[in-house]
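Q: Structure for this?
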Amino acid sequence: DQQVKQNSPSLSVQEGRISILNCDYTNSMFDYFLWYKKYPAEGPTFLISISSIKDKNEDGRFTVFLNKSAKHLSLHIVPSQPGDSAVYFCAATYNNNDMRFGAGTRLTVKP
Amino acid sequence: DVKVTQSSRYLVKRTGEKVFLECVQDMDHENMFWYRQDPGLGLRLIYFSYDVKMKEKGDIPEGYSVSREKKERFSLILESASTNQTSMYLCATSRDRANSPLHFGNGTRLTVT
């Protein structure tokens, strides 16, 4: 039973536009959420995170939004660049416990 | 920078073989994890360890075991490899339990024929 769900397996956007990647979770105990980025033949790398006490966290072109009542979070990339093309994984954890991941969304940014 | 090294990038084994996947980290992190990545399923936790000689089952431990004799090394063992264990295996570490991001190795692509 996947507690973290990414329902869009792929997303394609034009360079310079906004990319929005979505993630839903079922476990209301989750208190910390993360996004990872994965290029082919490499391990995932940490991108940005958000605590459940916040609803927004921003780092340069990347912003993560958390809607606790809807159990939904999203990653916004503005402006999108071709180098952002990768698979993005949403992850969640609670009570200092082990991390659960979504299935991933493959983002393609077209020049 | 944390370095997490997985001993093999690609591995091909036969059904029934015993398989060892090795992971070594150089940053003195307490926590180590083994995940497998499959299309449409994302990363699923197999086993993890918060200390030397300590291990905990993740979501899919069946058919696997682990060993952590030293802090820097965490081994995943497939006692008798099966074709449904063909996958990408990812080792990860973290500094402590309190909401620390994971640092991943580059993965081992295992094919069981």
